[in-house]
Amino acid sequence: MLNITLRDNMAFTPYAQTNRDSRLYQGTDSFTVHDHESSTAISPALDIYYQHNLPEDNHIYLNVVGTYLNTRLSRQFTQTPLGNTIADTTDVVSSVRGNKYSLIGEAIYEKRWEKVALTAGLRHNQQWMNNDYHYALVDMTTAETYAFAEVQQRIGHFAYAAGLGAMHTYISQAEAHRSNWIARPQLTMSYDFGKGVFLKYKGYISGYQPSLAQMSDVSQQIDKYQIRRGNPGLKPVMFVANELNLSWQSKFVSLDLWANYSYDHRPIMDESYEEQVEGTPMVIRTYANQRGFHRLRVTPSLQVRLLQNRLMFTVAPFANYYVSLGNAYTHTHFNPGVRASVMGMYNGWVFSADVTTRYNNLWGETLEYGEFYHTLNVGYNADKWGFRVMMMNPFSVKGYSTDVRDLSAIAPNTMHAEMKDFHQTLILNFHCNLDFGTRRSDAGKRINNEDTDNGILSATK
To answer: How far is the C-alpha of 355 from the C-alpha of 374, rounded, in Å?
Structure first.
């Protein structure tokens, strides 16, 4: 099978979510604040995939993806004093022209016997970046090579997959060059106890390198008091994960327990400190390899199926616990919540209702609060057409809101956004199938690669 795809993602964003026209009050002083960012991005890519099935259940998979990312980003920040306030007007103007080329190549060989399968592969990602910040030019080359081999076997009710891999990373910026090796073993084991009881464990060690934006040797002024700065000295991170799944299923009831614990060693997270810049004290927002990050997630779920699976009730409480260990800070966050839904089907008609509480996320010193929402859906599906009527937040009074908190000791802040009109929102959807003739699908592709990182250091908070 040969599949060649030429795609182009185009994004024109004249208004960013952080844009604002507001007032700032500091004691008896007041200011008007105008903050506006816009961006355009075009990223054509050529994706070539080849799959060859050899005799005796041997398979070869090849994928090569070349991408060009062209990005333009501009931002203007103005802080103007009002009334009797004695202060200078602050103007911050930034404009970035980004160009990035990347080439991703991956090859996998697979051999299957009756109860054993062997897989080996090699993946290489090469990136060339040239970003012009007008006052500074950032040229960077990065490479990531990953080789692995894995064996899978089933012995009665027991099955396992054991793999060993190695990843090499290379970074070059100006006169600085750095390379690192990271081992990536993994183990998956499962056992079928019979009578609907199933147990599965997965554990692996992996790694990742800093993003291009984080490593850029450049600074971007955020406002009158803050500067965003890249850190070329960042090092790759080792990542350890463990996942456990225990399930029981009968004709009418399913019980499932999913738990995940992971640890990032020396992760790349936020760091804030004060520095004198041209005689003015400024808060520097940057990135550093911190001490560690722990996350524990537990999700039990219960599903009840009635009327020959035409009516299903599902409830899945969850609990997330995060521990963020910085070089100069420690933050923890506990986030309990629940997801619940009901779905009914009859003669092509589908009805569903669901509710999800906030699913929060802590990373470094940034705490993001997720959305609280609920929906009602009614739809009909025929062979060639269908429609759906959905009501978002039908019982909401306050509307939609989200929060992002910066927990740093030197410059904490909270960004609260709300849309009081975002409730009782009606969504209508109609679809029809106009397929004719011979149609081929790429659903059987074993490898899918894509590059979406533009590598630009943003000046927003």
So the answer is: 4
CA trace torsion 154, 159, 164, 165 (10° rounding): 100
Could you identify the residue written with the tokens 């509480």?
357
Please list, in sequence order, all residues whose beta carbon lies within 8 angstroms of the beta carbon of residue 160, skipping any fewer than 6 positions away: 152, 153, 187, 188, 189, 190
> What's the N-to-C CA distance of the chain in angstroms?
47
CA-based Rg of the chain, rounded to a whole angstrom?
26
Separation between Cα atoms, residue 241 and residue 244, nearest integer Å: 10
Residue linked to tokens 């004709």: 251
pLDDT digits (tens, 9 = 90+) for 26-85: 888 899 999 999 999 999 999 999 999 999 899 999 999 999 999 999 999 999 999 888
The mean of the pLDDT values for the chain is 90
Q: Determine the Cα–Cα distance for residues 73 and 42; give it in Å rounded to an integer.
A: 12
3-state SS, residue 217: coil
Measuring CA to CA, how many Å separate 287 from each of 226, 235, 290, 330? Answer: 14, 11, 9, 16
Torsion region of 443: left, alpha or beta (phi above 0 gives left; psi -120 to 50 gives alpha):
alpha
Taking the C-alpha atoms of residue 59 and residue 351, their distance in angstroms, rounded to an integer, is: 43
Which regions of 278-420 does DSSP assign to beta strands (E)? 280-289, 292-306, 311-325, 330-346, 349-356, 361-363, 366-369, 373-381, 385-392, 400-406, 413-419
Neighbours of 230 (CB within 10 A): 22
Helix (H) or strand (E) holding 9: strand 2-13
| CA distances (Å), origin 144, targets 166, 169, 188, 207, 216 | 11, 5, 25, 11, 17
Tokens of 245: 């799944």
Q: How far apart are CA 227 and CA 260, in angstroms?
A: 36
Do 433 and 49 form a contact (C-beta atoms < 8 A)? no
**Mean pLDDT calculated for residue range 120-141:** 89
Q: What is the pLDDT of residues 389-399, one digit of tens each?
A: 999 888 887 77
Task: Quote the tokens at residue 6.
Answer: 């030429």
Amino acid type, 303:
Q
Q: In what order do the strands lie in the sheet with 366-369?
A: 361-363, 366-369, 400-406, 413-419
The pair phi, psi for residue 288, each rounded to 5°, is: -155, 155
**Residue 225 DSSP code:** S
